[in-house]
Amino acid sequence: MRVWGALQGAALLASVLWATPLLAKKEHPNIEVTAFDQQPRNLNYFQDSDVILFQDILENNVYRSDDGGVKWKQVEDVKDGVAWFLFMHEFDSERAYIITQGTKHYRTHDRGKSWTVFETKAEMSMYRADILQFHADDPDRIIFNGLICQSIIDCHEVAMYTTDGFKTPAKLLRGDTNGCWWAKSSVLFSTGSKDLDNDRILCIGMGDSTRVSDQRLLISDDFFKSSGNDIQEFEPNLDTNKPVHGVVNVAVVKKYLLVATTSSNTNEMALFVTDDTKKWHRAVFPSAHDSHDHRLMQEAYTVLESTNYSIQIDVMTTHPSNPMGVLLTSNSNGTYFTENTEHTNRSPNGHVDFEKIAGIQGIFLINKVDNWKDVEKDPKMAKKIVTEITFDDGRTFEKVTADGKRIHLHSVTELSNLGRVFSSPAPGLVMAIGNTGDALGDYFMDGNLYVSDDAGKTWSKALDGPHKYEFGDQGSILLAVKDSKNEDIDEFSYSLDHGVNWVTESLPKGLKIRPYILTTTQDSSSLKFILIGKSKDKKPWQVISIDFEGLHEDTCKDSDMEDWSARVDKDGKPTCLMGHTQSYRRRKKKAECFLKQEFKHIEMETKDCDCTDLDYECDYNFVRDDDGKCIKRGPIIAPEGACPAGKPDATFKGTSGYRKIPGDTCKPTKETDEKYKEVEQKCSEVIDAPSAPATGLISQTKKSFGEWAEFEKYYLPRGESSTSNDETIIMRPYTSKKAKAGSIWITKDHGKKWEEIKELKDEKVVEIIPHDYFKDMVFFVLAGKKVIYTLDRGQRYHEFEVQAEKHPEDPYPLKFHPDKMDWLLWEGLKCDGDECYRIVSYSEDRGDNWNTGARYIERCEFTGSSEYTLKYRDRKQEQIICVKHSKENNEKDTPWVLATTDDWFKNQEIRVKNVRNFATMSEFIVVATEDKKEETLHALASLDGVNYAEVKFPFNFDVVHQHGYTVLQSSTHAVNLFVAEELDGKDCISGTIIKSNSNGTSYVVSARNVNCNAGFYVDFEKMQGLEGVVLINTIANPGKGSKKLQTKISHNDGAEWDYLPSPAKDDEFGKFPCRSSASDKCALHLHGYTERQDRSKTYSTETAIGVLLGWGNVGDSLGDVKDADTFMSTDAGISWKRVKKGRWNWAIGDQGSILVLVQAAPAVKETDVLFYSLDLGETWKEYKFSETGRVEVTDISTQESGNSQNFIIWGHDDDGLFTLNLDFSGFSERVCKHDDDLSMSDYTIFSPQHPKQPNGCLFGHKSEYLRKKAGAKCVNDFTLPLIYTKTNCTCTRQDYECDYNFELDSHGQCKLVQGHAPLDAASWCKAHPDVVEYYEPTGYRRVPLTTCVDGRELDKVGIPVACEGHREEFERKHRTSGVAIFFSIVIPIAAAAAVGWYVYRNWNGKFGAIRLGEQGSSAFDSDKPWVKYPVIALSAVVAVVVALPVVVGSIWRFGKGVAERFGIGGSGGSRGGWSSLSNGGRTARYTTRDSFARGRGDYAAVDDDEGELLGEDSDEDV
To answer: What CA–CA distance (Å, rounded) separates 680 from 1437?
Structure first.
């Protein structure tokens, strides 16, 4: 090759100096063919070279060519069959990486000549494509996004990193991530600081749970290093002055860094943009208009190839099965977007027919849908696609023509080759497959090859039929091979004059192929091409090298070159494009020469022009009218500080409606400055317009609906990422007992204005079904098979038809997926003759198309979710679980089975037989199976939907006949399972709540004798928004006549229960019958879930932290609801007060800062007043809402989230059913602001207490929350995170549960299950690559929700052992000096002697005994001589055992055995179990009530830290 290179150099020199040929002209290009067994995939050139790599993905090998594809060889130094992925370094043309399935991979720094093993300590993540992230400035800095699995069902993502190009093993960057990126991931992006450009990293942190809504953006400038228990990281203020959770992706686009976020309740996403990672803005899109809006929906927008000065995005606006979009372009900082054009053609997988002409500013081609109205109405309608081109970056578009006829071109949605579709770096040269006519035709039937050499302005037909094509020698060579569906192509064509004339060449030896790929180097400067095709030969895959080197004898001279301008006038003179002329140096069309300037990049020359109208476009929320003027379509943008709070009438100088096109460099003139200068604008017409000054008044709006007796209502909550600020409710009235239904109404402003939904006016709607997860969507099921739905909160309506009508007894035939808005299940009734059966159908495109999934089903449900897919490998996102007949018949004896599918019912696996039903709660799937012979039920649980384990009830819980289970609310990685024990016929009377460990299989008793009703509803309710607070009603007299109910509360998630204390003092409403701090004789008791007519009514709301309201009474038990009063707590149930006599309905607004009470039927027949409080119930003010007389109130409601300032009273008056909107916004004039200086803040801090927990901690931490100060005239920010701080606590016994393959024994200790083995050490080390050592399994593991640190580490008892690969670090960590050995032996022995003598002098015979009512100051009693010497000996043994493990492990094992025989140590304590010596040692680790019956005079010693979370320190339920 060196000789050949010298000859090349000589030829070039000769052509320049003497213009005489050195080598004879050849008549044909060189063609070389190499055959392979498998298809070459992932073909990559090393930039600026002829070295190529490709992957054989079936054999998992990589092949290399160093001569442009002439010869190939499997890469050396890499084991055969291990290459799973091939990555090219994005910023270093010498480097590439082969990723294996293990933790050892391969790298090359010399374009694949040699490969070296590197280690990541984590496997590649199977859930992401961006495994490697490269630094744009330093090629040695690489992030590896990997995966670690502790077991087959327990996986989590981690990020590793290197700063030396993997010369040494990768280091842990951060665990529990969902991807990490260098800030400097683009050459154009910069933080503005050299140090930050070098080190800054952004990661998506998983948060305290696996929920996407908890994911956060975290930034570190020090590789997330730990200092103590703190990680060096911070959370940026994405939304101007506050962080945002729900981060799902990070992307670097040119000079912009984008962060996409989502939130619960909505499919709408928020996009945040920065150009330095310091200051962030939310991207703002135009207001909705006509047939579409511009909201960013998950999987419904595409960030397109953007420019250095703006971002371009296409947003889907129609059905997902046949989608269209709208094209938007940002301003120069990426914040505000304007609409370029509508009805762009999209594919269902998100591809958009959009491509810029390479190297030329402002020109791109798009495909649009001409019959968009028809496609919007009918998603099955075929699109009529047309092609347009823009020369001003999307401001205007024009038709594409060839020889005077309009042509349409196949684009990105129909990719038929690698790389760009139309263009290459060859200046002005463009090729495409298309056809003339009204619209784009079929690719194979109608497509022909067209060529343009003026950047798409004019085109000419080049070759008949569709072709794969490529550019070479900077446009000197155009190469094309005809496309085919068969192996019948035996030639290719090339042109040396911009496509005017073509030469055909045959493939060698009669070879015929079906072409798959035609490609060349990235810069299209080479004379060599690669053609890959499939033949019918024994080795079918043919890699064909086509080399045009030497085809011409000349190298181009200056006279062979021309200056080509991207835009010229009719006289051929350069005209302005994007404010400047653009010209390039390129070879003349008819020059008979090659440039032969391989890997030299083309340069553009520009010259700025004076500004004209063509350099301006409509500004944000302005659109052009029919006269071409920009008119306002929505609120405008005000400069920062221009519109002060409380002054909506203020004005400012703002946009005229025009802005210079981003990237336009024109020079301003007096005329354009005057024409487009800023004008006076009103603050009332801007985004986030200031509110009017606070009036301190309630406004109200009434709406009458006529003579209707009942109604149903559906609130549509908003998500934090929603751009809308509406408060939408859908309502339908009924006659008595729902005999007749009225029209369906909608309000967008919480009842101030109601509108009848005209799209449903003449339809018979049988069910209204809001989407379970995406609350913007509501489905209206009609009689028959038709369903109408809205996906944008009632803005627009769509429809589909299902395969079978809904079952008449099934009110909810639709089932929804938690992540995928478009995935639906429909359960319907199908009849074949006289036989009818249930079927389930599925749709992947929001009902556009349906397929039958399974027959003879009982019910089906989506159980797959992105929240669980990562953690549980077998729980695929597509997972569906069904209860169905084992055989397709309706025979009574045919058993029900539980079946799962991961591939839309193509394959179904039976997991459980004899199934009664199943329930899902959080990540748990609980299945009830039936034993007909024993007439009992059994429960099984699963985390992955594939493996089901039998539920193991507590040792002290034995229910011979189990008749029913209720899976209760859970948010703490544990199942709360209610087991019905006492029944009256088939009606539930009472039962026991048991609570599981983190995998849902092993249970302990939480509460007995819990009340339930005939529907198996249970008096159990968790406080919303606050961990661990639960209220239940229990039966104090089980089996003894009428139920005597008592209310209990737990502040540690059901571990311990207390009665509710009565109010501390009598009040204005009278005296209480008794007062108590909480006892079974006197307490506050509340009416619970089983007595509610409206199940949506709860004691609390998620945003009013600590606030509880309920009906009840003070006494020894719960009285009749007719006699109940209204009580309230503001400290999560620790203290209570009576707020009103009698039963008052309540509603909580503005995150608890507005409380409203009104009496409703049947508590009172009529009323005309309500009471409200703005200070958390400290004071109440009366408000008369009816001036025309008393009315019957049915209910008062507001948004379930508790964020609204609006409320609705529902009731009846002389005119029939009415709604009354109550607007409390008059009490606020601005958005509340928080400042860490609380004296300057609108908020105070509330810290809930958990009195039964050590130090008030729960799940290893204390939390503090923000509460608005009373009297602050502001409204709470809907998106402000309520949690203020979370402080970690030291670990206690409550932070641990039984480990893998361990279970609680009858004493509450974790013991190994017989016949099973604990998790092996290798798995532990593999799951924690940063850990140097491991401990042998102790039977305990941390509760998943805990964040505790240090303290009692029950999973680290014993001698640590080095993890593989960390031996040197381990030995260095545990190396002990001679001085340390001396002190570790001598000092403890001396101390032991002293302690022993002290105990001998003061011993009273009780190892840590606790007496009730003991007096005296001495802790010991020396009057028992029999204990003197044994205690001294024992003290010495224990002290020595503490010290000697530092020196020798064998003595440790001996000492541990001795100590255990004396009843100390055991499995208790912290490291080694000996740290409790200073407390006087340990005795039995549990106590029982019957110890008192045996006459013992004291309690056994029980440390508070010893008890199992659910009372495992007792073999009886206490």
So the answer is: 89
Q: Output the six-digit token pair for 69.
A: 């594809």
If we measure between CA atoms, which residue out of 1511, 533, 1370, 574 comes closest to residue 995?
Answer: 1511
**CA dihedral over 1390, 1396, 1401, 1402, signed as positive or negative:** positive
The crossing angle, in degrees rounded to 10, of helices 1449-1461 and 1428-1443 is 150
User: Residue 529: how many CB atoms within 10 A of its CB?
Assistant: 25
Tokens of 974: 């544990």
Query: 1373 — phi, psi (to 5°)?
Result: -65, -40
Phi, psi of 1383 (to 5 degrees): -65, -30
pTM exceeds 0.85:
no
For the chain, counts of helices (H) and of strands (E): 12, 105
The stretch 749-758 carries a mean pLDDT of 96
Q: Residues with Cβ < 8 Å from 775, sequence gap 6 or more?
A: 265, 266, 716, 717, 718, 719
Between CA 842 and CA 860 the distance in angstroms is 11
Following CA atoms 171, 176, 177, 178 in sequence, which dihedral angle do they give, to the nearest 10 degrees?
140
Specify the pairing of strand 96-99 against strand 814-816: unpaired
- What is the layout of strands, in order, in the sheet containing 880-885? 857-862, 880-885, 896-901, 909-913
CA distance 239 to 241: 6
Q: Is 1243 left (phi over 0), alpha (psi -120 to 50) or beta?
A: beta
Q: For 125-167, write each residue's pLDDT tens digit.
A: 877 888 999 999 999 999 999 988 766 556 788 999 999 999 9
The span from the first CA to the last CA of the chain, in angstroms, equals: 87
> Cα separation of 885 and 878, whole Å?
22
Where does residue 954 rank: exposed (0-12), middle (13-18), buried (19+ CB within 10 A)? Answer: buried
Ranges of beta strands (E only) in 863-975 are 880-885, 896-901, 909-913, 915-921, 924-931, 936-942, 949-950, 965-968
Task: Take residue 601 and report the two structure tokens written for it.
Answer: 């990049």
Whether residue 1174 contacts residue 1123, with contact meaning beta carbons closer than 8 Å, is answered with no
Helix (H, G, I), strand (E, B) or coil at 880: strand
Pairing relationship of beta strands 1290-1291 and 1349-1351 according to DSSP bridges: parallel
Q: Are 1049 and 1029 in contact (CB under 8 A)?
A: yes
1504 vs 660, more confident: 660
Phi, psi of 442 (to 5 degrees): -75, 140
- Cβ atoms within 10 Å, residue 1117: 18
DSSP summary character for residue 1408: S
Which residue type is seen at 692? A
DSSP letters for 280-341: -EE-B-PPPBTTB---EETTSEEE----SS--EEEEE-S-TTS-EEEEEEE-TTS-BEEEEE
* 1436-1442-1448 Cα angle (round to 5): 110
Relative to beta strand 710-716, strand 301-303 is unpaired
Question: pLDDT tens digit string along 1014-1039?
Answer: 889 999 999 988 888 999 999 999 98
Contacts of 1400 (CB under 8 A, 6+ apart): 1422, 1428, 1429, 1431, 1432
Query: What is the spatial distance between Cα 1245 and Cα 1230, in angstroms, rounded to a whole number?
Result: 20
Cα-based distances in Å from 338 to 299, 344, 699: 21, 15, 37
Residue 1402 host element (H or E): helix 1378-1402
CA distance 555 to 1220: 86
Cβ neighbourhood burial of 485 (10 Å; 0-12, 13-18, 19+):
exposed
